[in-house]
């Protein structure tokens, strides 16, 4: 158990850098027993942007090469684009530094396997940022399933709908590039849904997947050129779980009108539940013998994590999921404990993503390998 403050180094300071830095700042205010942290160093390539990020996100210093920081810090956060997940994460683990990596674990199954191997060899936690596991309603749902309150589970349905690429003129980014991202909606959004499917229901055995790219090239912002889109804009899959549950999965960046709409539905022989990220303080539950769904407001102190926040009825938001996951991860680091979801979970999800691609290629059902 460490009592010294943990020195944190983060690679990346944009969207995810802010989400995690916000969590680091909130932890000492709301989680009394969280380990003490130093926001030590932020790493990136652009020195001017780095200096601004260090200032606004509260880091003491900056560095332009992750190699210089991985064995200087107590925890290394890899919040960069997918193609920079594997090399720095593996090097940090080999240096004995705990790693927390954004999802999906890697652009390819091979890279994900190397990362999971490095994590298995290392004596320190290697966490993956599946933050939606840490929504109170999702943890509550897991307990309901585990306690048998829904009976035998028959169906799982997960959809993650966004619309920011609906417009063919929306600019190209690394998220549209196979080399850098691996896949599109499949890896970026589908990874979350597959993780929740595994968390709530179990592992997927085989599937039939379908990928689609609607817009083949996009303009580069500020330049008079376009670049090819080499990943999917949308995927869907029919899945068979190892335990006999039947499922359907879907994600798209072109569901016009849907900003960040992640929904999970589970039906069992005794009861059912429905969850939407757009109403994350609620869980819809059909109890055994009930005539319809009731909406449970998840803001009571006995609900997971909520004793740390506000009085009942005072809702929490998307950013709190990062506080909860960081609380669990950093506590595991400080206590020398284990953390889930880890790189092995990231690899398990990647196997499903890979199966969707293989199935789409061959236009056939495939086993998740
Ligand atoms: C993509 O738009 C994105 O930011 C994902 O990368 C995140 O994982 C998801 O939580 C929200 O949407």
TrEMBL record:
Residue ranges of domain GFO/IDH/MocA-like oxidoreductase in the record: 138-274
- Select a single GO molecular function from the record's annotations and give it: oxidoreductase activity
The protein's matches in InterPro entries, at most eight in alphabetical order, are given as: Gfo/Idh/MocA-like_OxRdtase_N, Gfo/Idh/MocA_oxidrdct_glycsds, GFO_IDH_MocA-like_dom, NAD(P)-bd_dom_sf
TM annotation in the entry: none
User: Which parts of the sequence belong to the Gfo/Idh/MocA-like oxidoreductase N-terminal domain?
Assistant: 7-126
Give one Pfam family, short name only.
Answer: GFO_IDH_MocA
Keywords from the named record: Oxidoreductase
Q: What is this protein called?
A: Gfo/Idh/MocA family oxidoreductase
Q: Which organism is it from?
A: Haloarcula nitratireducens
